[in-house]
């Protein structure tokens, strides 16, 4: 059994060098590089650990050794590894769900993303069998992982040639939304958190996709961080009419960290991008989930997570000054006229 564990790590594993920006062709020499490379290496390391240990006591021991600040990224990598084992297993294809329902339940959001990354790595075009089983947020975040993989590992094809997997063709509109959210997260790494370069990268995207990508940037800026307060202010300014989408991503990131019990010591990024504190964002999210979503995957025929995100957008807009949204389409929020 021990030999099998080592063999699957050797065959399916990734070297830590895959997370180095120089190798990836990302922006280097900027202040956020060390922080973001550490995040990426944490994910890759966890992926390799999961390949070797699977669901075992050794996996639990490995989790306990990770700092609280990085443990969310570690779970993302573990889910990548466990889902990879599920993809290649003949009989046991439930490791990921066992993990999410068990030890990884507090980090379910990050785990869904990790599973999506693994699906994309191994070109699992039949991903809908997973999304059909997942809850609404799991479905969207799985697609987020696919987008992240393509932009992180294939930046030229994804960020310049606007590649979208053929398996997405003809699918529901929110599939592309989730995919583009993942691209936005990867853009944060690709540009080492530099606002001017991020804004320039996003200009290449068609108008109808740009908002979703900005939301992904907001998520990464808040969850992964790595830049100064001044850079966050500049990022918000450069997002222009998409500032509310930037805030949407930031809100989701701080809610995710609060759910997992590993919030950032300072919530200054959330305050800048959403207009509210980390705890206020989390409390509002909890209220929506308990009073509106109530564990349902669909509400009035629509995915409940999409409703959740639309409510967040309205809330962010309502909590920032109207001048920031002078150019925001009136259809973006019913609260714009407030």
Short description:
With 338 residues, this protein is an all-alpha fold. Helix content is 66%, strand content 1%. Helix 3 packs across helix 5, helix 7 packs across helix 9 and helix 17 packs across helix 18.
Question: What would your notes on this structure say?
Answer:
The protein has 338 residues and is mainly alpha-helical. It has a domain at 2-230. It has helices at residues 2-12, 21-24, 33-53, 57-64, 71-88, 95-101, 108-121, 128-133, 136-153, 155-160, 173-190, 195-202, 207-223, 229-239, 243-260, 268-274, 278-293, 304-318; strands spanning 298-299, 302-303. It has a two-stranded antiparallel sheet with strand order 1-2. Helix 1 runs antiparallel to helix 3 (33-53) and helix 15 crosses helix 18 (304-318). The radius of gyration is 19 Å and the shape is globular. Residues 322-338 have low confidence and may be disordered.
Topology, element by element:
Blueprint: H1 2-12, H2 21-24, H3 33-53, H4 57-64, H5 71-88, H6 95-101, H7 108-121, H8 128-133, H9 136-153, H10 155-160, H11 173-190, H12 195-202, H13 207-223, H14 229-239, H15 243-260, H16 268-274, H17 278-293, E1 298-299, E2 302-303, H18 304-318
Antiparallel strand pairs: 1-2
The profile of the biggest β sheet is:
2 strands, antiparallel
Low-confidence blocks of residues = 322-338
Question: Beta-sheet strand percentage?
Answer: under 5%
**Structure annotation, total helices:** 18
Order of helices and strands: HHHHHHHHHHHHHHHHHEEH
Give structural attributes.
338 residues; two-stranded antiparallel sheet; 18 helices; mainly alpha
């Amino acid at each position: 059994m021990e030999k099998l564990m080592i063999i699957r790590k050797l065959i399916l594993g990734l070297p830590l060098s895959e997370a180095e920006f120089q190798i990836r062709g990302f922006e280097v020499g900027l202040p956020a590089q060390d922080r973001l490379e550490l995040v990426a290496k944490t994910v890759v390391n966890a992926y390799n650990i999961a390949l070797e240990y699977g669901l075992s006591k050794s996996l639990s021991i490995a989790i306990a050794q990770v700092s609280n600040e990085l443990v969310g990224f570690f779970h993302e990598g573990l889910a990548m590894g466990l889902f990879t084992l599920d993809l290649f297993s003949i009989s046991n294809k439930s490791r990921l769900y066992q993990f999410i329902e068990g030890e990884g339940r507090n980090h379910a959001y990050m785990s869904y993303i990790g599973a999506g990354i693994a699906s994309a790595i191994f070109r699992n075009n039949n991903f809908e069998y997973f999304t059909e089983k997942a809850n609404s947020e799991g479905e969207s975040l799985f697609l987020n992982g696919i987008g992240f993989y393509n932009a992180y590992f294939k930046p030229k094809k994804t960020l310049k040639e606007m590649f979208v997997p053929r398996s997405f063709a003809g699918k529901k509109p929110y599939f592309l939304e989730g995919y583009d959210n993942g691209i936005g997260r990867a853009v944060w790494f690709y540009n080492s958190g530099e606002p001017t370069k991020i804004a320039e990268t996003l200009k290449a995207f068609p108008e109808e996709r740009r908002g979703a990508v900005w939301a992904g940037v907001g998520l990464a800026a808040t969850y992964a961080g790595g830049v100064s307060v001044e850079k966050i202010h500049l990022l918000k300014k450069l997002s222009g009419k998409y500032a509310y989408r930037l805030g949407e991503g930031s809100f989701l990131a701080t809610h995710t960290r609060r759910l997992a019990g590993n919030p950032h010591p300072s919530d200054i990024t959330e305050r800048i991008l959403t207009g509210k504190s980390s705890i206020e964002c989390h409390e509002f999210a909890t209220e929506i989930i308990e009073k509106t979503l109530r564990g349902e995957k669909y509400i009035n025929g629509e995915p409940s997570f999409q409703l959740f995100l639309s409510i967040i957008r309205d809330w962010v807009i309502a909590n920032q000054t109207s001048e920031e949204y002078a150019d925001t389409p009136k259809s973006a929020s019913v609260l714009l006229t407030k």
